[in-house]
Write a structure and sequence with these properties.
five-stranded parallel β-sheet; 5 strands; alpha/beta; 5 helices; globular; Rossmann fold; 122 residues; 18% strand
Length: 122
């Protein structure tokens, strides 16, 4: 079974997202922040990434840029899940290579919809 990666500095949000994915029969590791995520991404190729934007240190747009530059990760679907509902943010992450953007708190129905749209869930 393939495994995704959740990147969010808020433990409660990341853990809730992991539970929603389990309900959808998907498994995912969690990296609680961008620095731990960069360590994980150094040796793990996830089948998809759920990525927060506003994190201390490297923000999510920088993590997204790394994923899109790294040949091994380039084609991994990235779903941005953020509380930042600004049109500029949406434009930035979608033009930066994310397949979709959801606003927190994401519902399981919205998550399932984008996972189907990106081909992660069939």
């Amino acid at each position: 079974m393939s495994e995704g990666l959740i990147i969010d500095d808020n433990r409660q949000t990341a853990d809730a997202l992991q539970q929603m994915l389990k309900i959808l029969d998907l498994s995912a590791r969690i990296a609680y922040g961008s620095s731990p995520a960069m360590v994980v991404l150094g040796s793990f190729t996830p089948s998809f990434v759920c990525l927060d934007i506003n994190m201390p240190g490297l923000d999510g747009t920088e993590v997204l840029a790394y994923i899109r530059r790294e040949p091994r990760l380039m084609k991994v679907p990235v779903i941005v899940i953020t509380s930042d509902d600004q049109p500029e943010t949406r434009q930035q992450v979608l033009s930066g290579g994310a397949q979709a953007m959801l606003i927190k708190p994401a519902t399981i129905d919205a998550l399932e919809g984008v996972l189907k749209k990106t081909g992660v869930l069939v």
